[in-house]
Amino acid sequence: MLTNMSEFFLRTLRDDPADAEVASHKLLVRAGYIRRVAPGIYTWLPLGLKVLRNIEKVVREEMTAIGAQELHFPALLPREPYEKTNRWEEYGPNLFRLQDRKHADYLLAPTHEEMFTLAVKDMYSSYKDLPVLLYQIQTKYRDEARPRAGVIRGREFVMKDSYSFDIDDAGLDKSYELHRQAYQRIFDKLGLPYVICEAQSGAMGGSRSEEFLYPNEMGEDTFVRSPGGYTANAEAVTTVVPDPVDASDVPAKELRSTPGASTIDSLVELSNEMYPREDRPWEAADTLKSYVVTLTHPDGTREVVNIGIPGDRAVDEKRLEAAFAPAEVEIATPEDLEAHPELVPGYLGPEVCGPNSDKRTHDEDGNPQGSIRFLVDPRVVDGTTWIAGGNKVDHHVYNLVMGRDFTADGTVEVAEIREGDPAPDGSGPLELARGVEIAHIFQLGRKYAEALDLKVLDQNGKTQVVTMGSYGLGVSRVVAAMVESHHDDLGLSWPMIVAPFHLQVLAAGKGDEIMDTAKELAEAVSAAGFEVLFDDRAKVSAGVKFADSELLGMPYVLVVGRGLKNGVVELRDRRGGESREIPVEEAKTAIIEELEKNRGSSR
Amino acid sequence: MLTNMSEFFLRTLRDDPADAEVASHKLLVRAGYIRRVAPGIYTWLPLGLKVLRNIEKVVREEMTAIGAQELHFPALLPREPYEKTNRWEEYGPNLFRLQDRKHADYLLAPTHEEMFTLAVKDMYSSYKDLPVLLYQIQTKYRDEARPRAGVIRGREFVMKDSYSFDIDDAGLDKSYELHRQAYQRIFDKLGLPYVICEAQSGAMGGSRSEEFLYPNEMGEDTFVRSPGGYTANAEAVTTVVPDPVDASDVPAKELRSTPGASTIDSLVELSNEMYPREDRPWEAADTLKSYVVTLTHPDGTREVVNIGIPGDRAVDEKRLEAAFAPAEVEIATPEDLEAHPELVPGYLGPEVCGPNSDKRTHDEDGNPQGSIRFLVDPRVVDGTTWIAGGNKVDHHVYNLVMGRDFTADGTVEVAEIREGDPAPDGSGPLELARGVEIAHIFQLGRKYAEALDLKVLDQNGKTQVVTMGSYGLGVSRVVAAMVESHHDDLGLSWPMIVAPFHLQVLAAGKGDEIMDTAKELAEAVSAAGFEVLFDDRAKVSAGVKFADSELLGMPYVLVVGRGLKNGVVELRDRRGGESREIPVEEAKTAIIEELEKNRGSSR
Question: Torsions phi, psi of B6, nearest 5?
C-alpha cells in the first residue's frame, strides 16, 4: 500500500520528550510512533501501531506453529476467581481494582491464569482432551509503582500470554519446551538478541521458570552469566554453599567494648586498632551484619525478621523482594523496633534472635514464636567465626561461632551477587550484566488447577489435577527492545520484518519531474505488494526530508533528487548497508528485487 | 489452514444457556463461540474470535478505502479530558471509574472523542493538515444498567470508532457522507440488512446524526418508516404540529366537580355521564394529562417539571430520556411533590404551573423561577380545547383553551409514536418496527474542539475551531446481528465472508478409507488457501457430527461417508443451497471451484 506523507497522521519532533531517558522512549516519541496519555499509558500512533501489529503477526505464526489456539478473554474481570487463587490480595497495589454500579468488585487483569484454567474446566473433562495450548494477545493492566522508559514498563500494555494444560509432568515439560523453542524462533525472526535466564517464579507460584532478557545496559533486570554457559536472573542465583569449617581451635566468644562502632566500617577500623589479630587485619567479611526487615504478609500481618549476612555484602533489593514474595518487605521502622526492645540498633546480633533467644517457644502447629525469626546468608555455615553485635550499646561479641554459639531459623538469598562469584553449577566465575525482560516462561504446576478445581479423568477413570504452564511475551515491550537494538544517532532503523513501511520514497528537490518520477516509482513498488511511504510534501526541504527519513527508520529509502537529471535515483539501505545509484529506467525492477530479497529479513 | 476438530478448543452444548433469550445469544454459547464471564462480559472462544476478526477485516478495508488512518488509544484514561467536556459527570453510572495507587481518577473509556481531539491538537496546526479521518478498533467499556442478549448489549465490547476533523461545515458534510457510504458498503459486504434512521445525538452533542439499525423484533430500538422512505429512530421523530385552531366559539373555562376521576379513563367515563356533549362523546384525546417528572441535572440539582400531553398518548420512556439528556429523568417522587403543595396528585392542571402561575418570576438572567416549568406536547397548539386537572381534589376544568386560558414554557417530544402517525416530512403514515443499533454516525460540530481548544490556522492566518464528526460501529454487536440474520432452527449459518471456516469436512462413518479420504480432501482444500475444519473425531457418531456441523454453521460441509463405496462424496451448502454428490476423483477440483466462486460472498 502507498501512503502519502502529506496526508499521513504524523509529526516528528525536534526535541526529546522531557521525561525520556532511554533511546527507545525518546525515538518512538520523536518519530511519532507513540504518545503519552498518562504515566505508563501510551497511544499507538499509526506508525507505532503498524510495528506492534507486525510483531504480533510473528508471534501468532509461531504460536500457531506449536499448535496453540488463540482466544480472547475480557480485561475486566470479576474478583471471585482471583480470590480463590489468593491473587486478589497477593497482587497488592499492582492491581487496578474497581467496582461496578452494583458495587461488585472487578479488576483489570494483569495475567489470566485463572480465566484460562476455568475455560479448560468448562470445556474439557478427559485426559484425551490434553494437552492443549491456548493463548491470547491482549491489552493488560498493572498499576506499576514506577512506570518508566515509555512502553518498556507501562501500566497498560500488550502481552501475548499462553497457557499449557497437561495430564502429567512429562507433558508439562514438553509444552514448556515447545514454548521455549517458539520464543527462540520469534526473537530470532525479529533479530532481537536475547539470553535465557533461570528465574524465580515469584508471585506466580510453580517450579521451573526462565526469563528471556534482551541484554542492554538500560534494562532493569540484572542477570549473570558464566564462561560455562550458566545464565540466570540475579534473583534466581543461588549461593554456592561453602563446606562447614572446623572451629575447634576458636577461642570462646567474648563481649568487647566497641564504643561508637555502629557501622561495619567503623567496627573494622576500631577492631584493628583496639583488638588487632596477629596473622591479618580484620575485614568487613569477618563481621556478621544484622539487617532487620519488616514483612507485610498478604493477610496484612506484619512480621519483623533479622537477617544475618557477611558484612562485606550489600543486600540486593530485588533479591530481597523475591526472597520474601508474596510478602512485601521494607526496612524495619522505628515503631517496628520499639516493639522489640531486645533489638539494639547498631549493636544487634544473633544471640537475642531466633532459636538463640530465651524467649523462643513454639505454637501448637510447631511454628516458632516468642522471638523474631533469624535467617542467615547461606555462606554462614557451621564453624564460621564472626564479629557480631553484642546486643548492648557500644559492644560487639568476638569469636562468635555459627553452630557453637548461635544458630538460625534458616537461610535466605538476599545478598548481592558480585562479579566473580562462582556459578552455582560450577561453570566458572559469574559476570554481571543488565537486560530487559521480554518474555517469561513458567511451569506453574498444579497450583491454579487445584485452587480452581480443574480435574480430568485419566486413563484409569480416576480424576487427576491438571498441570499447567504459563508463558508471557511482552509485545509492546518488544517494540521498545527492537528500537534499543535497532537505532543509531540519527534515528530508528527497522528490520524489514517489523518495519511499518518497507520503503520510504523521497521527492528531494523541486520540479514536476522529480515529483512525478518519485510518485511513479512509489506506486510501482507499492503495487508489487510492499508498504511504501511517499514523502510527497511540497514545501518541505530536501534536508528536512532526509532527516525525517533517518529518524523514521524505514529499511530502504529511495531518493529521487538532483541525480535525476543524470538519469539516476539513489537507493539507500538505512540499516547500515551501502547506498547505490540506479539508472531510473531500471529502478523499479532493481528496487523490487532488492526488497523481495530481504522480505521478512531480521537485519 | 486445516484444523482438526479432535484437537480444537471447542465443546458444543446440547441446551440453551439459562440466561439466554435471543437466538444469537443461545447459538453463540451453544456452538462454543462465546462464554459469559460476568454480566455483559464475554470471552471470545477460538470460533468466535475468528468471526470477530473477519468482521474487523471488512471494517478495516472500508475505512482504509475512505482514507481513514488507524491508531490505538488506551482504554484506561485519566479523568481530566473528560472533565473538560463534562462527560466525566454526564456519563453518570454508565462510566466505569477507578483510582490508581496514587488515588488519581481514571475511567475505562466508552468512546474516545476527547483523546482523538487532543491527538489532532497535538499533531496538527493548519487547515492544510485537514481533513483527517482517524479510527481505532478497540475494546470499550460501559457499565450498562441492564446488560442483555449476550454480546448485543455488553459491558466490555469491541467497537470501531472513527472521527473526522474538518475546517468547515462543508468538509464535515463530506466526511460524514464518506462514513455513511463506507458503512453501507460494510453492511452490504457482510450481507447484514440495515435501515438508516434519523437519530437524536443524545449525550454526544452535535447536530446531524443517523443510526444504522439491523431490523429485527428482538432489537431494543424502535424505529419508524413511511411509504415515502422516511426512517427515523423513535426518539428522533418530531411531531407534525397541527395548525392553530379558531377557539372563538369555545365557552369560558369552567371548573366542574369530577369526584374520584383521578385517571384519564375514569375522567372520560365520568364526563360522558355527568357532562355529556351533544355532538360526540368525550374521549381521552379531549383531556390534557399532567405528567410530572424530576430531572437530575449533571451538576446534581433536581428540578420538577410538569409535562402536558393529550390524554390518549402514553409517554415513551426512551423519548422522555432523550428529550432531557444529559439530565436524568424519573417520575417525580412523593418527596418531590411535597415541595410543591400546589401540585394536587390526580387533579393537576396547567394553571398552577409555568407561566400560568402567580408565583412565576424571573431571575437576573431571565430564567423562569417561582413556579415549576410547564412543557407541552407539540400537538397542544393555540386554540386547542382541553379538560385538565382543576388543581383541587375531585375537580377538573373544562373548555380550557391553549393560548387563551393557559400557555407553556415550551414544547417537548415525549409522547409515544403510534402506527399511522404522519411522517414529519409528509411522506405518509408511519409504520413502527424494532431493530438493533449496529452503527451510529454523528456530526459533533465544534463542541469537543471548543472544550479542548482544538484550533488551526485558516487560509487567512486566523485561528478557527475545528469541526468534528464521530462514527461508531459495534463490531462485537455485529457478530450477534449476523447470527440473528443468518441462522435456522438447526444452528448458525455463516456467509463465506465472516465464516470462521469456509468448509467443514465430516468423516461420517467407520473405516480407514473414509477417514483417509476425508483427510486428504480437507488437506487439499486447505492447501488451496481456505480455512478448513476437519471433524476427525474417532469415536463420535455420524449423527453427532452432522448435528454439530449444523450448529457450528460453516457455509460448506463436505460429507465423506457411506457414499464413498459408490465413489461419491457429498457437498452440502449450509446456507440453504442444494447439496450435491460429487465423484470422489473430481471432488478436490469441484470443491475448490465452488469455494473460490463464493469467496467473500455475503450470502
Answer: -65, -20
Q: What is the domain partition of chain A in residue ranges?
A: 52-237+431-481, 254-411, 494-597
pLDDT digits (tens, 9 = 90+) for A474-502: 999 999 999 999 999 999 999 999 999 99
At residue A363, the pLDDT reads: 85
Question: Predicted confidence band at A203 (pLDDT cuts at 50, 70, 90)?
Answer: very low
Q: Is the pLDDT of residue B183 over 80?
A: yes
Written as one string, the DSSP assignment of A340-401 is -TT--TTS--GGGSGGGSTT-EE-TTS-EESS-EEEE-TT--TT-EEEEE-SSTTEEEEEEE
As given in the structure block, the three cell numbers for residue B5 are: 476438530
pLDDT in tens, A123-162: 999 999 999 999 999 999 999 888 888 888 899 999 999 9
Amino acid, single-letter form, for residue A106:
Y
Comparing B147 with A577, the larger pLDDT belongs to B147
| Residues facing residue A432 across a β-bridge | A224
What CATH number is given for B492-598 in this structure? 3.40.50.800
Nearest CA in chain B to A75: B156
- Which tens digit of pLDDT belongs to each residue from A513-546? 999 999 999 999 999 999 999 999 988 999 999 9
Residues from chain A that touch B126, judged by Cβ atoms under 8 A, are none
CB atoms within 10 A of CB A528: 15
**CATH architecture, domain defined by B15-75+108-237+431-484:** 2-Layer Sandwich (3.30)
Q: Is residue A17 reached through a cis peptide bond, with omega within 30 degrees of 0 on the bond before it?
A: no
CB–CB of B287/B310 below 8 Å? Answer: yes
Q: What is the three-class DSSP state of B444? A: strand
The DSSP result for A211-278, as a single string, is EEEEE-TT-SEEEEE-TTS-EEEGGGPPP-PPPP---TTSPPPEEEE-TT--SHHHHHHHHHHHS--S
Q: What percent of chain B has pLDDT over 70?
A: 99
Strand order in the sheet with B395-401: B254-257, B395-401, B385-389
> Between 3.90.960.10, 2.30.110.10, 3.40.50.300, 1.10.357.10, what CATH number should domain B258-411 receive?
3.90.960.10
A520: helix, strand or coil:
helix
At residue B206, the pLDDT reads: 53
What is the helix (H) or strand (E) element at residue B598, kind and residue range?
helix B584-598
Using CA atoms, how far residue B189 sits from A86, B138, B574, in Å, is 48, 21, 19
* Angle (CA) B42 B48 B50, round 5°: 135
Report the distance separating Cα A60 and Cα A64, nearest Å. 6
* B46: nearest CB among A11, A69, A122: A69
Contact flag B75-A156 (C-beta cutoff 8 Å): yes
Q: Does B32 touch chain A (CB under 8 A)?
A: yes
Q: In the predicted model, is pLDDT for residue A279 greater than 70? A: yes
List the single best residue of A51, A54, A83, A100 to mutate versus B (max B Cβ within 10 A): A100
Determine the distance in angstroms separating the CA of B355 from the nearest CA of chain A, rounded to an integer: 39
How many residues comprise chain A? Answer: 603
Among the partner-chain residues A41, A72, A96, the one whose CB lies closest to the CB of B44 is A72
Contact A417, A430 (CB under 8 A): yes
Say yes or no to pLDDT of A422 above 80.
yes
Task: Please report, rounded to a whole number, the percentage of residues in chain B having pLDDT higher than 90.
Answer: 74
β-pairing verdict for A288-296 and A328-331: antiparallel
Per-residue pLDDT at A339 = 84
